[in-house]
């Protein structure tokens, strides 16, 4: 048997399952404070009380969903009259889709897709909760997607005030906001009844990413399949792009690329090729989460790459009539989502003109827009 060539029936993966998108890692480092905060907020349900509502925020790929699911799994064992539900608002992005999902979980019946209103499904869901004496712990994951249709406030408001209209109803809400947070504000009808425990998930430091990726490598691959230098190459991608999901996806794809070459170990080239072939997927996923004004501004930047902020604002204002403050917010948002770089050019009136540049190729962005 050759030492360097992988035989057709051999694999580099010790346990490929840990690289799947919905895998919940056993070892979840650097998030102890956040896990504790979620756990203590939910703990009252064990004693029959209402949980404390939570507002979780942070950029994509910082462990928000995983943290909630870990605590769900942990607490679920102690109670049997509590329904733990997570609704993914990126998939269920309207109030009707959200309530349909809750209704189905609470009643066990699939609701009709049309001919019923949000209100009537909401009524029936609450009645069922009261009748069965069950409580609901609901996570609205990536609730920012409900802001695009302006449905977030109504959903939150209905849930938070349900106990007033349906005596005996007990609901705890965990709202998970991806990204900037400040940009999405609930209206005062919501904030007057939503006094949550606020839990932040900051971006991981380089060394933390290294630790997480390293741990995943040890679980997924046989020893020595991924040399430290190749691991760091992947960590660099994650650090640049800001989303751990991309790193875990790269591990899987790079491993498969190496297998295809019948190699016993993964190289930098395997990683680069994996990134090239999945790049569009990641860019599109990130662009999908922008709202329509953010997309319009991004399109303007695609049409005028390397443009001064002042000139860009002029075009934006002509096209949308929005003012400078709003424009500036959108620029920050595109910067936070890593679509653009902002450079001080040393030119312009005060030598401080900002130059707006795309981080990825205009043609890739156009394919996703
Ligand atoms: N501290 C961590 N340790 C191990 N894996 C992590 C950690 N944080 C995030 N991950 C992994 O990164 C990916 C993205 O995490 P996720 O919880 O989906 O992030 P978010 O909900 O914030 O977008 C998942 O595959 C998750 O397993
Ligand atoms: Mg998530």
From TrEMBL:
<dbReference type="Pfam" id="PF22703">
    <property type="entry name" value="Cdc6_lid"/>
</dbReference>
<keyword id="KW-0235">DNA replication</keyword>
<comment type="function">
    <text>Involved in regulation of DNA replication.</text>
</comment>
<dbReference type="InterPro" id="IPR003593">
    <property type="entry name" value="AAA+_ATPase"/>
</dbReference>
<dbReference type="InterPro" id="IPR050311">
    <property type="entry name" value="ORC1/CDC6"/>
</dbReference>
<feature type="domain" description="Cdc6 C-terminal">
    <location>
        <begin position="297"/>
        <end position="369"/>
    </location>
</feature>
<dbReference type="InterPro" id="IPR036390">
    <property type="entry name" value="WH_DNA-bd_sf"/>
</dbReference>
<dbReference type="GO" id="GO:0016887">
    <property type="term" value="F:ATP hydrolysis activity"/>
</dbReference>
<dbReference type="InterPro" id="IPR014277">
    <property type="entry name" value="Orc1/Cdc6_arc"/>
</dbReference>
<dbReference type="InterPro" id="IPR049945">
    <property type="entry name" value="AAA_22"/>
</dbReference>
<dbReference type="GO" id="GO:0005524">
    <property type="term" value="F:ATP binding"/>
</dbReference>
<keyword id="KW-0547">Nucleotide-binding</keyword>
<comment type="similarity">
    <text>Belongs to the CDC6/cdc18 family.</text>
</comment>
<feature type="binding site">
    <location>
        <position position="204"/>
    </location>
    <ligand>
        <name>ATP</name>
    </ligand>
</feature>
<protein>
    <recommendedName>
        <fullName>ORC1-type DNA replication protein</fullName>
    </recommendedName>
</protein>
<feature type="binding site">
    <location>
        <position position="216"/>
    </location>
    <ligand>
        <name>ATP</name>
    </ligand>
</feature>
<dbReference type="InterPro" id="IPR036388">
    <property type="entry name" value="WH-like_DNA-bd_sf"/>
</dbReference>
<keyword id="KW-0067">ATP-binding</keyword>
<dbReference type="InterPro" id="IPR015163">
    <property type="entry name" value="Cdc6_C"/>
</dbReference>
<dbReference type="InterPro" id="IPR027417">
    <property type="entry name" value="P-loop_NTPase"/>
</dbReference>
<dbReference type="InterPro" id="IPR055237">
    <property type="entry name" value="Cdc6_lid"/>
</dbReference>
<feature type="binding site">
    <location>
        <begin position="62"/>
        <end position="66"/>
    </location>
    <ligand>
        <name>ATP</name>
    </ligand>
</feature>
<feature type="domain" description="AAA+ ATPase">
    <location>
        <begin position="50"/>
        <end position="205"/>
    </location>
</feature>
<dbReference type="Pfam" id="PF13401">
    <property type="entry name" value="AAA_22"/>
</dbReference>
<dbReference type="GO" id="GO:0006260">
    <property type="term" value="P:DNA replication"/>
</dbReference>
């Amino acid at each position: 048997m050759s030492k360097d060539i992988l035989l057709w029936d051999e694999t580099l993966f010790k346990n490929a399952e840990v690289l799947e998108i919905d895998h919940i890692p056993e070892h979840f480092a650097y998030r102890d404070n956040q896990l504790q905060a979620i756990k203590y907020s939910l703990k009252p349900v064990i004693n029959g009380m209402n949980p404390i509502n939570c507002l979780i925020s942070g950029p994509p790929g910082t462990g928000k969903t995983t943290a909630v699911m870990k605590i769900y799994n942990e607490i679920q064992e102690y109670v049997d009259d509590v329904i733990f539900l997570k609704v993914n608002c990126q998939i269920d992005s309207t109030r009707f889709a959200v309530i349909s999902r809750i209704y189905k979980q609470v009643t066990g019946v699939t609701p009709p897709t049309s001919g019923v209103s949000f209100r009537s499904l909401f009524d029936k869901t609450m009645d069922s909760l009261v009748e069965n004496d069950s409580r609901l712990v609901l996570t609205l994951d990536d609730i920012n997607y409900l802001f695009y249709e302006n449905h977030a406030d109504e959903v939150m408001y209905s849930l938070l005030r349900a106990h007033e209209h349906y005596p005996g109803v007990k609901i705890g809400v965990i709202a998970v906001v991806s990204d900037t947070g400040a940009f999405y504000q609930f209206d005062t009808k919501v904030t007057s009844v939503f006094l949550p425990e606020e839990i932040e998930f900051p971006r991981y430091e380089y060394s933390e990413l290294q630790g997480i990726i390293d741990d995943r490598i040890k679980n997924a691959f046989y020893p020595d399949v991924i040399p430290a230098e190749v691991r760091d190459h992947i960590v660099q991608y994650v650090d640049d792009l800001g989303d751990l999901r991309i790193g875990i996806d790269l591990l899987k794809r790079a491993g498969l690329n190496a297998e295809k070459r019948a190699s016993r170990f993964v190289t930098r080239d395997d990683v680069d090729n994996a990134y090239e072939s999945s790049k569009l997927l990641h860019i599109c996923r990130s662009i999908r989460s922008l709202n329509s004004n953010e997309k319009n501004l991004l399109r303007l930047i695609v049409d005028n790459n390397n443009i001064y902020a002042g000139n860009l604002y002029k075009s934006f204002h002509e096209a949308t009539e929005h003012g400078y403050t709003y424009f500036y917010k959108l620029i920050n948002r595109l910067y936070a989502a890593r679509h653009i770089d902002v450079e001080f050019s040393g030119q312009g009136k005060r030598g401080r003109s900002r130059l707006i540049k795309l981080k990825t190729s205009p043609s890739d962005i156009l394919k996703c827009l």
